[in-house]
């Protein structure tokens, strides 16, 4: 039976004592996540390790397999579907030391460690005239490894710029049993047919630890345009989005919704004008030729026009746009500061069902049981389409009550995803969404996932508890 | 009559838990903390949740907490970011509350250097272990003890960076300000408040408050950002209100410039490239950003440039919050990073408004080989200000 001291000694001999910690305070800090409840005993790790490279990751995983100790992979610990919090006492493997970046302009790609923060990489690329097609709202801290592991778009609309995996040329992965493999290519054509890159990108840390990412370089679209459209409520916006697609307007880079109360609060705070009682959709389009972005935006607007917006305009003043955009970008923390802790859902319906799905989302508070008629606000990447119903967690709830409330929000929003034919698109599918996978895709599908997990991770070392669900 | 406003420790515990209710664990603070180098405990969220779990779940209190909760300059960069982009947690107050709780409720032994500083402030009324009678010895001319503007010199300027104190007196006397010395001055106690020794600071603060309020002066003037912050923010919160107006020397200089009583002779610094370092205690903690800039950008012939991290985003020099005394080599690393920012701008002169920032940055500049002259705004004005 391993003791904490044993684990500490073994791991510090492996990767150096400054890279290992059994301090209880480090351990809780690498387990905490955005869920609005405290850690339970089984969620507290034994130790935190920070390996420097694939070889050290491999040693840690071999050790974990030998001693049957679970390992949790930690990028930024900011996943919104509960996936980052350990479900068992475990070794937390932080990727924070693997932050090397090499930009090979002559090859058209970059290689980076999984621990490099999205905003840091984006800034490096921006300086050289490239664009990083990875835009989670948490990009200040979210890691590239995490973004690829979840294959998340965030604010970026898939139908405009694709998903992160579209840009992944190859990966270096350490399998749960410690073998190091490389996938993909160093050429600019991604392999067609069998390519294990596609297994590991989006595997949510369940099938291997990504230790290197090769991403195609994307030249920055030099032309941008932005605009806002105010409607009487959210439902006309849902209809406007359907129109946008039906009329073959090219999807924008960003297309964000704020409901009436969110507009009142956030626009009001910044002294920005908005028609009374209106909901807003704010858009950014991009292009490579001067005028291209504005042309795209005008096409979208002429589709929107058919749903009778109160007001619609192109925003030319970049300073004004920054203010308007920040209304959406920080609506989650704004509401938290004003109203207290929260839990948000992700509902991503099929296109023709967007208005009906939205109508049901707006009715959700009436259907909640663990908390009667909770306060709820609506915002989201409506152009994707994705909706984020934001539920306020009453501050007086105990930890147990909060867990039940969060579970109910998840269950009810996933039920809408099932009925309205969607499957998320921004957050991962593990842990809190395993119920959804089972209900939507059935037992056969779920068993394939379990089989894949068992094949690659026979001792169930990585992120144990996430494929099992709640 | 001075009212004791000090919150009891049980209330402070509740305050810490309540402050963290809106923390969403986004960890954005790790992206802006001058001390973050890869371990979450280095930034605000790591400290606040350590204390949360101590208070709520009786996690053990031991020596390692000195390297967590005191490993922080309380610069407030995290708080500014949290307010703008996240849950709006008052991180500075929470970390200072945590320090107070750990020392007084959980009986944690302080960092030795901090215990020494406490002993010195209690014995000498300054942290520089010098008899307080010598506080005004640096004066080049005699100043009366009564006047319209009472100069609160501050311990660092009085006992270490006397160039700042002398320059302040010289400039305001040159401009015919009715300046007096606060002859009863004792340490403002900022150094104690920032390191958790709140209880111990109260009696000295009460004396300062009473003596200032009985002085018949109209204004308190200080050239120290730390004293300014303490007088502006901590005194009203902990001991009581002043019946005088508080001005930083930069604010007074700006007022004089704008009313035509201070003119700037740009000859000496013609063609020089200068930048300004916002002291955390003057900037983020006290909201004074414009006064020094108004002066610096008015010096004819001088090229004033902003560092990339300026105003609310200003990067700490590393000395505040007990960090310089508790973690000296690391604090100089932080100072070096700030100087690199200035070096990358190609500036020859870095101006600041805090003798402690000047002490820290000029030591780092010398020891780490940066060729940047670090001066206080008042030292600059002593060379170029005229009536």
Automatic annotation (TrEMBL), chain A:
Under the heading InterPro entries, the entry gives: FAD-bd_oxidored_4_C, FAD-bd_PCMH, FAD-bd_PCMH-like_sf, FAD-bd_PCMH_sub2, FAD-linked_Oxase-like_C, Oxid_FAD_bind_N
What keywords sit in the KW lines?
FAD, Flavoprotein, Oxidoreductase, Transit peptide
**Could you say which cofactors this protein requires?**
FAD
Q: Where in this chain does the entry annotate a coiled-coil region?
A: none
Q: PROSITE patterns, alphabetically?
A: FAD_PCMH
Instruction: Decide whether keyword Oxidoreductase is in the record.
Output: yes
What molecular functions are annotated in GO for this chain? D-lactate dehydrogenase (cytochrome) activity; D-lactate dehydrogenase (NAD+) activity; FAD binding
List its EC numbers.
Answer: 1.1.2.4
The cross-references to SUPFAM superfamilies, in alphabetical order and at most eight, read: FAD-binding/transporter-associated domain-like (SSF56176), FAD-linked oxidases, C-terminal domain (SSF55103)
What top-level class of enzyme does the UniProt entry assign?
oxidoreductase
- Residue limits of the FAD-binding PCMH-type domain? 41-220
What is one GO biological process annotated to this record?
lactate catabolic process
Q: Which family does it belong to?
A: Belongs to the FAD-binding oxidoreductase/transferase type 4 family.
Q: Report the protein name in the record.
A: D-lactate dehydrogenase (cytochrome)
Q: Which organism is it from?
A: Thermoproteota archaeon
UniProtKB/TrEMBL annotation, chain B:
Annotated organism of origin: Thermoproteota archaeon
Listed GO molecular functions? Answer: 4 iron, 4 sulfur cluster binding; metal ion binding; oxidoreductase activity
Protein name stated in the entry: 4Fe-4S ferredoxin-type domain-containing protein
The Gene Ontology CC terms held by the record are: plasma membrane
SUPFAM superfamilies under this entry?
Answer: alpha-helical ferredoxin
Q: Which UniProt keyword terms apply here?
A: 4Fe-4S, Iron, Iron-sulfur, Metal-binding, Oxidoreductase
| Family under the similarity heading | Belongs to the HdrC family.
Q: Does the keyword Nuclease apply?
A: no
Gene3D superfamilies named in the record = 1.20.1050.140, Alpha-helical ferredoxin
């Amino acid at each position: 039976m391993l003791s904490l001291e044993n684990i500490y000694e073994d791991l510090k001999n492996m990767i150096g004592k400054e890279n290992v910690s059994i301090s209880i305070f480090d351990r809780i800090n690498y387990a905490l996540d955005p869920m609005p409840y405290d850690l339970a005993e089984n969620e507290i790790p034994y130790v935190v390790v920070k390996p420097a490279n694939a070889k050290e990751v491999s040693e840690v995983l071999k050790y974990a397999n030998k001693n049957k100790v679970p390992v949790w992979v930690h990028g930024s610990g900011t996943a919104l579907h509960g996936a980052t919090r350990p479900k068992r006492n475990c070794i937390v493997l932080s990727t924070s030391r693997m932050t090397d970046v090499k930009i090979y302009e002559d090859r058209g790609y970059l290689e980076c460690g999984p621990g490099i923060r999205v905003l840091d990489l984006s800034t490096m690329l921006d300086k050289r005239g490239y664009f990083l097609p990875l835009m989670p709202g948490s990009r200040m801290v979210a890691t590239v490894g995490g973004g690829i592991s979840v294959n998340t778009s965030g604010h970026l609309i898939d139908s405009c710029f694709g998903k992160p995996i579209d840009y992944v040329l190859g990966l270096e992965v350490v399998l749960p049993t410690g073998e190091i493999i490389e996938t993909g290519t160093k050429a600019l054509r991604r392999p067609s047919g069998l390519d294990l890159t596609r297994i590991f990108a989006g595997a949510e840390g369940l099938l291997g630890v990504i230790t290197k990412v090769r991403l195609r370089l994307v030249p920055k679209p030099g032309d941008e345009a932005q605009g806002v459209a105010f409607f009487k409520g959210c439902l006309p916006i849902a209809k406007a989005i359907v129109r946008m697609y039906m009329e073959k307007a090219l999807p924008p880079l960003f297309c964000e919704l704020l409901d009436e109360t969110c507009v009142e609060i956030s626009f009001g705070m910044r002294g920005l004008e908005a028609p009374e009682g209106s909901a807003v959709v704010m858009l950014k389009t991009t292009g490579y030729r001067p005028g291209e972005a504005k042309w795209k935006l005008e096409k979208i607007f002429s589709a929107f026009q058919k749903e009778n917006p109160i007001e619609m305009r192109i925003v030319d003043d970049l300073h004004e746009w920054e203010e308007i955009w920040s209304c959406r970008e920080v609506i989650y923390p704004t509401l938290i500061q004003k109203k207290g802790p929260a839990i948000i859902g992700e509902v991503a319906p099929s296109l023709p069902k967007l208005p009906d799905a939205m109508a049901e989302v707006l009715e959700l508070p009436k259907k909640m049981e663990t908390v009667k008629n909770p306060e709820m606000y609506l915002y989201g990447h409506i152009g994707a389409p994705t909706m984020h119903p934001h539920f306020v967690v009453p501050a007086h709830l105990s930890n147990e009550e909060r867990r039940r409330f969060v579970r109910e929000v998840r269950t009810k929003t996933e039920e809408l995803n099932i009925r309205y034919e969607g499957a998320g698109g921004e957050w991962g599918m593990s842990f809190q969404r395993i119920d959804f996978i089972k209900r939507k895709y059935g037992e056969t599908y779920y068993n394939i996932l379990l089989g894949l997990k068992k094949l690659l991770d026979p001792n169930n070392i990585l992120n144990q508890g996430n494929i099992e669900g709640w | 009559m001075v009212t004791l406003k000090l919150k009891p420790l049980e209330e402070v515990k509740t305050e810490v838990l309540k402050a963290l209710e809106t923390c969403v664990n986004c960890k954005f603070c790790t992206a802006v903390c001058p001390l973050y180098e890869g371990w979450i405990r280095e930034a605000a969220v790591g400290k606040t949740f350590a204390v949360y779990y101590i208070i709520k779940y009786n996690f053990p209190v031991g020596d390692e907490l000195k390297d967590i909760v005191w490993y922080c300059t309380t610069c407030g960069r995290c708080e500014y970011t949290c307010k703008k982009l996240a849950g709006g947690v008052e991180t500075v107050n929470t970390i200072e509350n945590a320090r107070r709780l750990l020392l007084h409720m959980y009986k944690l032994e302080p960092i030795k250097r901090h215990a020494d500083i406490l002993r010195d402030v209690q014995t000498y009324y300054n942290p520089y272990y010098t008899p307080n009678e010598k506080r005004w010895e640096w004066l080049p001319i005699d100043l009366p003890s009564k006047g319209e503007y009472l100069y609160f010199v501050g311990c660092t300027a009085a006992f270490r960076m006397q160039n700042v104190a002398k320059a302040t007196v010289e400039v305001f006397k040159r401009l015919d300000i009715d300046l007096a010395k606060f002859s009863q001055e004792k340490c403002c106690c900022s150094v104690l408040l920032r390191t958790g020794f709140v209880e111990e600071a109260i009696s000295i603060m009460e004396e300062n408050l009473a003596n200032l309020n009985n002085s018949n002066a109209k204004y308190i003037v200080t050239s120290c950002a730390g004293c300014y912050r303490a007088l502006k923010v901590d005194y009203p919160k902990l001991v009581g209100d002043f019946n005088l107006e508080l001005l930083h020397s930069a604010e007074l200089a700006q007022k004089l410039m704008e009313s035509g009583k201070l003119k700037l002779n740009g000859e000496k610094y013609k063609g020089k490239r200068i930048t300004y370092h916002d002291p955390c205690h003057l900037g983020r903690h006290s909201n004074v950003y414009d006064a020094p800039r108004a002066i610096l950008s008015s010096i004819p012939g001088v090229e004033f440039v902003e560092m990339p991290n300026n105003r609310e985003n200003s990067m700490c020099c590393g000395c505040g919050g007990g960090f310089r005394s508790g973690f000296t080599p690391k604090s100089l690393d932080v100072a070096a990073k700030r100087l690199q920012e200035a070096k990358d701008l190609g500036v020859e002169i870095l101006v600041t408004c805090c003798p402690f920032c000047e002490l820290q940055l000029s030591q780092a500049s010398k020891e780490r080989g940066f060729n940047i002259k670090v001066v206080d705004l008042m030292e600059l004005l002593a060379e170029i200000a005229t009536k």
